[in-house]
Amino acid sequence: MKLLFVVNPISGGVDKKPFLREAESLCNNYGIEYSIFKTTGVNDEEGVKKIIDEFQPNKVASVGGDGTTLFTAIALLETKIPMGIIPLGSANGMAVELFVNPKPIEALKNIIMSDVIGHLDMVKVNGEHYSIHIGDVGINAQIVEAYDKDENRGMVTYAKYFIDEVKKVDLIHVAINANGKSIDKSGIMVCICNSRKYGTGVPINLTGNPMDGKFEIVVVKKIDTNSIIKAGLSKFEEGFYDRENIEILSTDKAQLSFDKPRLLQLDGEVIGKYKDIEVEILSGGVNLISTKNSLSSIVK
After folding, report:
1. Phi and psi (nearest 5°) for 273?
2. Please, are residues 73 and 129 in contact by the beta-carbon 8 Å criterion?
3. Sequence-ordered list of residues with C-beta below 8 angstroms from that of 296, at least 6 positions apart, any chain
4. What 8-state DSSP symbol labels residue 244?
5. Does residue 14 sit in helix, strand or coil?
6. b or e along 60-94 (b: 16 or more beta carbons within 10 Å of the residue's beta carbon)?
7. Among 72, 194, 234, 245, which is most buried by a count of CB atoms within 10 Å?
8. pLDDT by residue (tens digit) across 127-141?
9. What is the pTM of this model?
10. pLDDT tens, 157-196?
């Protein structure tokens, strides 16, 4: 077997060297041929596609957080090579969503051993951008933008910007065209969800399933300020979910038109400002290495 590691060295402020040493030792012990690609922020797309073409891996391990998972999935979109996740980012929201083993070396063992493949949906935005976790317009996108400009990483840094942005929350107006209907909504955040929870653990889309061929448009009308601050600092269970102030629309295609250009983030990456957004599902676009137990938990 040939295994490619796609590593984001700075994700979550987590040092990847100890894991990589252990991973290399494991691969060497079992005669697994491996290669390591580390992102630098410069021509990463070209670099990873080149090594995939030259190395021809049987499996790929994405080592980092949600952004690294998305980056790896996009690189493999046309190849059908299966990928697994090693959770070494800030919050590892998608890894949690997919019931990946939280211990990185155990997650690697599952990738090496498992022939169980799940067909994970991918969301395509404006014909050129992608998401497999959660994208949004509104307060969280502003937080992500500020976080990206800070050289520090981790949940403490994220929480700092969460608190700052709460003080200047702006009401968003959006027209949503989906399922043959057009509706107008207002709120503090409009989310494009392929999964259920943010990396903080806050549930936003309890009806979601990342393998059902649909995504959800979630409009958050308002949230208590104190609850938002707490959500940025700690993990919450389903009880935090405020059904009265959240509206959900499930679909496989949608058009969103905002009152003015709004900042969009997808899976923790700031994309830019848009007044109009087109969204569609790529059903089963990612071949995800999983386990039978994990897959059964995902589709519940």
Report:
1. -100, 135
2. no
3. none
4. G
5. coil
6. bbbbbbbbbbbbbbbbbbeeebbbbbbbbbbbbbb
7. 72
8. 999 999 999 998 777
9. 0.84
10. 555 555 555 556 678 999 999 999 999 999 888 999 999 8
